Amino acid sequence: GELSGMREGFIDAAFGTVPPQLGASLMRGRDMIDRVLEGGFPEVVGREKNRRVRAWFRAYSTTTLQRHIEDTANIDASGEMPRLLSLVASQAMGLANVAKMSRSLDIPHTSMVRYLNLLRASYVVQGLPAWSPNLGTRLRKTEKLTLVDSGLVGYLQNADAERMIVQRDLFGALLETFVVMELRKQLGWSDMLAFLYYFRTASGTEVDVVIESSDGRVVAIEVKSSTKIDTRDLRGLQLLRDQLGDKFIRGILLYTGEHTLPFGDRIWAMPVDALWRWGATPGHE
After folding, report:
1. What is the pLDDT of residues 225-259, one digit of tens each?
2. Which residues contact 124 (CB under 8 A, 6 or more apart)?
3. Strand partners, 220
4. Biggest CA pair distance of the chain
5. pTM (two decimals)
């Protein structure tokens, strides 16, 4: 939003009563891929040469981050921490199987838990808890993990725009990270007091993001890297709508196409840049 000179209002608009009315997406071709790979660190945004961008991410993910963690926790994690960051990046928005991660990196389980907690406290790793109408069930389910910035994830995956154009499945995880972090930032100034989750049934039906307000109302968001809409991608949104009734305010499929389209009762497909266009006002605090 700041890059476009807008103060985002997507979350408040999504919980509102006015249907989305947006012109065609302003992001064309690989523009969205470039935006996601750039991420949101001010030190990176606007750097003209890819070599300089990668140099900054390299310094952040090694020297800067290691020094910060070693100073705050009084541990020497110089060997494990970069490998752990790369592992989390490779599984971005995947379920956090800590035992499997420990075995993969040959790190004791207790150390793995501690390192992940340090990365959370340093605002590098972010978790997305599972959602269910029952709070007790919600607390027991496995969370998803990702890093705080899609540009950092892309760097650690050694991703570039050409590769993302061909490997859309890899871009999908990056795009989901980007969307989750944009929503998390907007919650900082939204009028709506709300929290972010994901939803998944035992049979595998999933919704990437559930935004639940403090009064129990829900906006559900599915993220797809495709430029075309497959109605099968709406199943999770439809399931939540049918289960929640009036508490379900709106379901939104964010995709890389151009147009905003209705898909039945309270469900819409919208371009990803609706995140900073829908409900936006000029300027940014």
Report:
1. 999 999 999 999 999 999 999 999 999 999 999 99
2. 65, 85, 147, 148
3. 210, 251
4. 55
5. 0.91
